[in-house]
Design brief:
Chain lengths: 219, 219
């Protein structure tokens, strides 16, 4: 298969790219990189040669001789290269800007602050307890979701951007999954919750969920 | 003036947008939002109505009735709307993807971890001392720059992407400014240092530097 996705079942950024690949109706080989076992396979060869930042995901496209990192960059690349499936960015530059900004609200201002390496650093540097790590991650999700809920009140429809599924939804659903994991009370965010529900009814989102991946632990 | 940029002199993300506006040869009105004075003007009305995330920058384009946040989204919008000046993204989708990924390495994985609100939270939640705040910010910059230095060894030229100034350089120069502020030994990153030097010789970069802004403190 030409497309190979290196990812981890519970990684929010990997989850985004799985959704995008499904929405674009693209077949791909999924290659798990376990972020915890063996001290983290992302720190080992051969993965760190593919991605020196030692983060997931990485997309390899053998057709293009391409090794690409950063989930948002991967998603826009897939959208620009493949016209099939759902268009993940609107056609008008002003609308594209709004969708990118919503996606970046999550990918720049929420997800990086609560991911595994940051929680590990809080433990190492500040002896953070599991409860303190949990509260830290929850704080940034709640702060990000509060702002996003306000933004969505002026521009959302069935999905983040009107009635079209876009890259903003592709980022929102994994962040909501992560929020539930950290025990966030989602009833405080009714618009986000409604949009997430609408997305999760689509097979492209449902099939990308962490528990359905081959590297998810058995129940 | 149709374009208004709300920003802060030392904010890395505001600095990116100032560079982009200069490279696109666009006039704009700069409206300072002081992130420290009065408990942070970003938390107050009227700014928080413009940007509920209470972060800078925000671009207002009166021609389009547009209020846009997130620096990378703003930069791509300016590049797509205005053909004048420097093209900040390459034409080929594969090359665009590489430039976006480099920009996101900084905008997603470095800058958000060491910005003011995170350093303030470390103090509040973990009683971090100024030295610990400093070490935290420096750690993420060094980690991000180490990965970036490796990536640039296979794809850079005079600038991050070959011999063209792109959005990747627009993100790199402010991050290097921030790194120097945190005392990072830049001799460890010779490719990054060379590219930053090349960029800083261009008036569009030089004129955007924090110390030249109207809200910078007097020397």
């Amino acid at each position: 298969m030409a497309l190979k996705l290196y990812g981890y079942w519970r990684s929010t950024a990997s989850y985004r790219v799985r959704i995008a690949l499904n929405l674009k109706q693209l077949d791909y080989e999924y290659i798990p990189v376990h972020l915890v076992d063996e001290g983290g396979q992302q720190h080992q060869l051969p993965y760190r040669t593919l991605n020196p930042a030692r983060l997931v995901p990485t997309l390899v496209d053998d057709d293009e001789d391409l090794i690409l990192h950063q989930s948002l960059s991967i998603i826009e690349f897939l959208d620009e290269k493949y016209s099939r499936g759902v268009a993940l960015l609107p056609r008008h530059c002003l609308e594209r800007a709004r969708v990118r900004a919503l996606a970046q609200d999550l990918a720049c201002d929420v997800q990086p602050l609560g991911n595994l390496r940051v929680l590990q650093a809080l433990k190492t540097d500040f002896a953070a307890t599991p409860a303190q790590q949990h509260a830290w991650a929850a704080h940034w999700i709640e702060r990000g979701f509060s702002a996003l809920e306000q933004r969505l009140s002026t521009q959302s429809g069935k999905y983040c951007f009107d009635f079209d599924v876009t890259m903003a939804d592709v980022c929102l659903v994994p962040q909501a999954y992560n929020a539930r994991r950290f025990g966030i009370d989602m009833s405080r965010f009714p618009l986000i919750s409604k949009i997430v529900d609408n997305c999760e009814q689509l097979p492209a989102f449902a099939q990308a969920c962490p528990e359905s991946q081959l590297d998810a632990p058995a129940c």
